[in-house]
Amino acid sequence: TNRKHHVSPRGFHGVSHLIDEILASTYHGLHGLQAIGLRFDAIYGPRGFGAPSTSVPILNVNRMRKNVGVSPDVALAEVEVRRLYRKWMRMVVEEYEEEEEFSLMEESGWLHASHHPRDFVFVEDAVGAIMAAMQYRAVQGSPTTFNIGSGEMNTLSAFADKIQQVAFDDNRPNRSVSNSVIDVERSNAARSAGFTSNEYLGWSAQTTLKDGVAKLLAWHLDRALPFFSSSTLDEEEVDYSESEGVMKHMDGKDLLSKNNVESCSTEEGDATCLLEQHTSYPCASECSTMTCTSSIFDAVLPIVHDTTEGCYMVLYTAPLGYDVESLDVETEYSDSGSTFEYHEGTVCTLAFVPSESTLVKNVIEDLPVNAQSMLDTSPSDSYSTKLKKLNGHLAHKGFLLIFVDGATHPLSPEETLLPKLAPARLFHSSVRRAMYVDESFSHTPYPEDALFLSTETYRGVTKSRTIKGHDEKGRETKYKLPEEPQRYAVMLASQMRDISTGEVHAVSLRDATRAMMDEKGYDADAHEPKEVRAQREFYERGRALINSMQLRSSDPAHRHKIEIKDFIRSKWVLYNLKLEEGHHVRCEWYKEHGRWAGSNTLDSGMDHLSFAYVMAKRELSRKIVSEEPLPKELSLTEKVIKAATDAHEWHPVFLGGGSKIPLHDSFKASAAQAIPLNIADRPEFELDKVVPETVSLDTKTSYFVRIMSDEVMLKARKNWAKFIAKFEKH
């Protein structure tokens, strides 16, 4: 390259690269090693350096960790996505107001670099330059260095303005003259560098700044807002039940289309596509965007909405994708007219079954003639007419049957998983909670069981109390526990049974997967299906990022051991359908497992493996963003608290802004105190039996996923039975 383009670097980053060039030249002189050096100014695009987690628009990461390990293009794109999110949310609740003056540069933390001129090169063009350089052979093999650039200099402020332009942000500020000032000498150097690389490498940048910025923002938009809230009930609750007539946000493909930028597709096998994986989910799914697809559930939505109107909770199952002959699970029929004296809520029982199945045919054939006349049908009606008239009016083993057309053949993963993992849009807006039960569940779930479990999803403030434990010498000691805050679970499930050995509750992922297969009723000793093995091995590769310190090791057998706290038995799961935090958890689970689930029953059934991954990834994001210290070995006091409370079963949901971010534990264990023996008998230290207060809407609440152990659930059920008996007595 031309010697006048060799500038002295002013920072450690540039110096390190200059050292690389000197070393390459030295190795050529000593050993004849050929080397090509490429000097980039500013590479930008999807998957940029320092891209944080999917909850970026809701949690203002940069306010917490300003400019820590994030490149400017990433920071600017994320801030603009957050701005779009706030704008769309105001449109949803119909409270759109003019915002105060906004500076994208200031919000991103890069205001100090506004006027720094840079030659921005899109990442696809940068890869093209590298591939071209790999084909270049210099005269006599001497080391050669090229300045790689687009030939155009822009300030970072101009880059930010381009982001707001492609986002169709009507409130973007007008460009000032200073924003457009370019260093003419450096601009000429950039063009000269472009000519040089074009002449010798046959390469030139193909992506304009506008197109590159659109691709950058589209990727961040899909990654940060995959499951946008559709409509709002009030400040805390969101309604996902409506599939039509609600505002849906613009996704990455829409943004590219509106900017006339050609879009690639990850679904079509394009390995070079830099868009975030974008699945068009069924419109009946609560996770769908504007580009949703039709599904087998579309035709039955009106029927299900009618039958669930007025229901507080739905207990349901969905044996689909094969010819169902009979329901293996059984319950007690209940609908919106069924009331409980001890609870104001009503429970409706439903089962989605294939309309072409043997079960439906037998149920219709066994229907008495007088019952047919009551339902406006007769024996002379055609079978298709009976299906239409009787849909949502017949029950089998306690479940009201919903006939779903085209559901006897294998379904797509998105359709198979929808009833269990993304069900909110299936039911009427009056339904606040839903409990899914697997068709192979061995126990009989009754409506009162569902109500009992729903009461375990919230907990009022628990006052400070005194408990018994043991000290380091094994002596019985009293401990004063701090007040526990109010908690709300967006999801409830049962914990996988502990199969670990030793003090550290950890097992290999292979053993955990075998236990999950066994829990699902599959032969755990049989050959592991290739789809399950691929999923397990993928998760094993990333365990070093998630394991806490005591589980990190250079030994592969030990390194792949995992903590089992997030592993569940997923034959039943209970959701709160009205909280945005729960919506995001469900959709992340739906999206993650949809990547692995195949058409056979086993693949779709291993969803608890995907759930553990989603929870582990969320925990890692929370710890990084909130700079939470790594957990140490539990102290004696913490062990006493863990044995005396169920706080460890409440796993915080990493979503929300500002002070709504929950702590790792429900209350600080360090605040607990051992009471000295010489004063332990004082009246103020008598053992307390404190009952949690009633949940208050005025009390600040953090949100959790609750994974209940069998021991805690058995104890809670006994207390529930005592409550019912006491209520009936009075």
Gross morphology:
globular
Percent helix = 25-40%
Proportion of beta-strand residues: 5-15%
First-last Cα distance: 93 Å
Task: Give average pLDDT, whole number.
Answer: 77
Give the number of DSSP strands: 23
Write the layout of secondary structure elements.
Blueprint: H1 12-31, E1 36-40, E2 42-44, H2 61-64, H3 72-92, H4 104-108, E3 117-118, E4 120-122, H5 123-134, E5 144-148, E6 154-155, H6 156-166, H7 184-201, H8 209-224, E7 231-232, E8 238-239, H9 252-258, H10 301-308, E9 313-317, E10 347-354, H11 358-365, H12 369-374, H13 383-390, E11 395-396, E12 399-404, H14 413-421, E13 433-437, H15 447-455, E14 458-459, E15 465-470, E16 476-481, E17 487-495, E18 506-508, H16 509-519, H17 530-541, H18 543-546, H19 556-559, E19 561-563, E20 568-576, H20 580-596, H21 601-605, H22 607-625, H23 636-644, E21 650-652, E22 673-674, E23 702-708, H24 710-729
Parallel strand pairs: 1-5, 2-4, 9-10, 9-13, 10-12, 17-23
Antiparallel strand pairs: 3-6, 7-8, 11-12, 13-20, 14-17, 15-16, 16-22, 17-20, 18-19, 21-23
Helix pairs in contact: 3-6, 3-8, 6-8, 8-9, 14-20, 20-22
Concise account of the structure shown:
This protein is an alpha/beta fold and 730 residues long.
Structure description:
The chain is of the alpha/beta class and 730 residues long. It is globular. The termini are far apart. The chain has 24 helices and 23 strands.
